């Protein structure tokens, strides 16, 4: 048996390719939407992808199940559990608890493990060439290394009310009836790693075992003591912000994402074409340079995506394809680089990238407003209607912030403008921890029409300045 983990650092998301070397068949579990890597991997091993499956209706990325099935002719499998409200809207074989998929010598058994979502499936894998019992467990968003999937995303991102409590109860039951009944040696392969918003304490280890989690996971003591309420209380406390685009992912994944094969190819745009598109609103520029370069001058109305490594996450924060019909042009040196951005963008359903431009010279430019920590209070005194806005996660905000700051995370600001002052009132003075997330949020807010002033150095810079200022004041007081 072959088992390969394909990990996306951008979204902290894991897909898996399992292959039977005797028959040359392979299945992919939870593929992302840019599927070429799976095709290349199967080809490398001399295998044919004949099946593709997913664990649940994902919220954090756009599924590639339909895309990969269309590209290979593979049979698609999705959950048939969870009730009427959790049924998929595209053609696929439905799996219920105990159903199996046969892949040569390999048997994959679906287990219904609700809690993160009502329809969630996990997959037990038996390598029939060596054993007659399962040795591997692909748990999706059920069990992570050191954590379990959060049950509050439906409330946080999809507009449900108080489903977190029922979900937490279901997770407790799933751990008891499905996970802890397995032998300690069973290897666990989760759907996410550290950095994912699908849990609050995810470890970075690519895999774990049932025995390790049974012994050391934070939730283990509650299961050992049959303490359901203690488990629920700790599980729900301190969960991070859920990005607003998660709601769109849920809807699109349930219905079935559009096929990428129907999109036009990227091309290079001339400066004149971009300028004309910016003028009539048909195009928007994605500035991919570092934050310091953007602060020196950028295209008016440009979005800031300072890191290719987090381009999917950041474009999901900064651009809403359901309300913005502009085509995106990325600042890139060549077509190959632009295609890399496109691969990241489509993972969160932003299919609007139409091409690239090599330079911003000749395009209308502006210098973003920035204020130093030393001048911040003077600015706030001059602008009494200004809103000091912390775009970090609420857990970061709770650990310490600038006095008077309101909190609305960078992943939510564009989509929750009802929580911001009107655009004709005072400016928004924004900050994150170091400035990168703030640049993404500020660019999207400026494009939406807000007057935004970024805090230089963000919270880290302000903290350093504040500490130095207090030390100087104490020294001056002692001298007097």
From TrEMBL:
InterPro entries linked to this entry: Metallo-B-lactamas, Mito_Persulfide_Diox, POD-like_MBL-fold, Rhodanese-like_dom, Rhodanese-like_dom_sf, RibonucZ/Hydroxyglut_hydro
Keywords: Metal-binding
PROSITE patterns according to UniProt: RHODANESE_3
Gene3D superfamilies linked to this entry: Rhodanese-like domain, Ribonuclease Z/Hydroxyacylglutathione hydrolase-like
Location of the Rhodanese domain: 382-464
Protein name listed in UniProt: MBL fold metallo-hydrolase
Annotated organism of origin: Brevibacterium daeguense
């Amino acid at each position: 048996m072959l088992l390969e983990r394909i990990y996306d650092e951008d979204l902290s998301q894991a897909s898996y390719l399992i292959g039977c070397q005797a028959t040359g068949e392979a299945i992919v579990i939870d593929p992302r939407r840019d599927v070429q890597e799976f095709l290349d991997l199967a080809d490398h091993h001399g295998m044919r992808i004949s099946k593709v499956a997913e664990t649940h209706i994902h919220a954090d990325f756009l599924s590639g199940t339909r895309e990969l099935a269309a590209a290979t002719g593979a049979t698609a499998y999705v959950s048939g559990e969870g009730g009427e409200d959790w049924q998929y809207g595209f053609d696929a074989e439905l799996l219920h608890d105990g159903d199996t998929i046969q892949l040569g010598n390999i048997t994959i058994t679906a287990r219904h493990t609700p809690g993160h979502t009502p329809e969630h499936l996990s997959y037990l894998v038996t390598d029939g060439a060596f054993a007659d019992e399962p040795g591997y467990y692909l748990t999706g968003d059920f069990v992570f290394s050191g954590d379990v999937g959060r049950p509050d995303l439906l409330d946080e991102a999809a507009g449900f009310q108080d489903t977190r409590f029922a979900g937490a109860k279901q997770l407790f039951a799933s751990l008891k009836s499905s996970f802890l009944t397995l032998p300690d040696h069973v290897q666990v392969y989760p759907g996410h790693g550290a950095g994912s918003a699908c849990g609050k304490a995810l470890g970075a280890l690519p895999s774990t075992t049932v025995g390790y989690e049974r012994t050391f996971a934070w939730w283990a003591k509650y299961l050992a003591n049959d303490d359901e309420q203690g488990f629920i209380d700790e599980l729900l406390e301190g969960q991070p912000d859920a990005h607003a685009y998660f709601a769109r992912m849920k809807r699109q994944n349930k219905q079935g994402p559009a096929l990428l094969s129907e999109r036009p190819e990227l091309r290079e745009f001339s400066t004149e074409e971009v300028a004309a598109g910016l003028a009539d609103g048909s195009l928007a520029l994605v500035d991919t340079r570092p934050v310091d370069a953007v602060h020196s001058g950028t295209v008016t109305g440009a979005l800031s995506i300072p890191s290719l490594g987090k381009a999917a996450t950041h474009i999901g924060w900064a651009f809403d394809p359901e309300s913005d019909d502009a085509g995106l042009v990325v600042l890139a040196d060549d077509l190959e680089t632009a295609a890399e951005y496109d691969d990241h963008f489509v993972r969160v359903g932003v299919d609007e990238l139409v091409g690239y431009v090599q330079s911003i010279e000749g395009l209308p430019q502006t210098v973003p407003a920035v204020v130093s920590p030393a001048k911040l209070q003077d600015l706030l005194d001059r602008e009494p209607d200004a809103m000091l806005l912390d775009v970090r996660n609420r857990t970061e905000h709770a650990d310490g912030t600038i006095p008077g700051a309101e909190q609305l995370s960078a992943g939510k600001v564009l989509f929750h403008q009802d929580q911001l002052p009107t655009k004709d009132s005072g400016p928004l003075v924004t900050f994150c921890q170091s400035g990168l997330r703030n640049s993404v949020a500020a660019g999207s807010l400026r494009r939406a029409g807000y007057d935004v002033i970024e805090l230089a150095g963000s919270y880290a810079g302000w903290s350093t300045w504040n500490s130095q200022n207090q030390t100087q004041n104490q020294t001056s007081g002692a001298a007097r």
